[in-house]
Amino acid sequence: MTPESLVRATENLFSLPDVVLRVNQLIDEPATRPADLAEVILCDPGLSARLLRVVNSAFYAQPKPVETVSQAIGLIGFQALRDLIMATAAVDLFKGLPPEKVNMEHFWLHGVACGIAARDLAARRGLRNGERLFLAGLLHGLGRLMFFSQCADAYREVLRLVEREQLDSVAAEERVFGFNHVELGAELLRAWRFPESIWKVVAARLDPALAGAYRAEAEILQVAERVARQVAATAIDTGEIASVDASDELKVLAERWSLEPDALLDLPGATSLRAFEVFEILLPGSTLVY
């Protein structure tokens, strides 16, 4: 088995809806207008309703209700539209996983926090088109969901190795499957026709040197993932994440960027506030309380 073969074998299970693929394609075309996107989105009543619900939520705090899809697109912009549509599509695809395999609220809170932290770090670094790192952060863990969904029995051996031999999950996955969830998730994003600037960054999260031209983005994602674990520790009381502290990584990054040593240390707090707002949009009615 390889990441490619597993993704091919689950193509029908984990394929994005045509409307999502078309919207993603249109956003990358310079001549696209809000009306063009609205025409496609209106073909999916559920997506249209969700977009209007989100734009009229407290997150955007509009003085009066937004009533049309075109208005909504004009309000939030193309990049935010892409983030919303891709995020909600991913949540919908994997929402059926049994809670005994994975706590989806914990999973998506971590993803949201990672995406927000990555986007914020990219902005502070002054990276061009750094907004795309929100999706890289949000979706960086999808390979783990694929393992839980399609290889549940084999993954029990991964968990056994983590518990009894004190291996980290990546090393245990490589021993059992020959590849890890990072590689698998990146392959899924590639199959979903994400640009290289996203799936290659996800693929190189553990070793940014492998990202080539996207090394800076991969380094940001690596640190953002640590920030996300620290954020999750403020909401989720588990021994696994309670001791996570991203301060050292943030200080190293600040030094590399020629900033003051403490310049990035406010990131976990700022990320936490935004993460719960976005999380509530993606999973309304969540039982997590901040």
Explain what the structure shows.
Residues 13-208 form the HDOD domain. It comes from Thiocystis violascens (strain ATCC 17096 / DSM 198 / 6111). The structure is a single chain. This protein is mainly alpha-helical. The chain has one domain (3-282): Hypothetical protein af1432 (Orthogonal Bundle). The protein has 16 helices and no strands. It has helices at residues 3-9, 18-27, 34-41, 45-55, 69-76, 78-93, 104-125, 133-138, 142-150, 152-164, 169-177, 181-191, 196-203, 215-233, 247-256, 267-282. The radius of gyration is 19 Å and the shape is globular.
Can you lay out the helices and strands and say which pair or pack?
Elements: H1 3-9, H2 18-27, H3 34-41, H4 45-55, H5 69-76, H6 78-93, H7 104-125, H8 133-138, H9 142-150, H10 152-164, H11 169-177, H12 181-191, H13 196-203, H14 215-233, H15 247-256, H16 267-282
Helix pairs in contact: 1-12, 2-3, 2-6, 3-5, 4-5, 7-14, 7-16, 9-12, 10-11, 12-13, 13-14, 14-15, 14-16
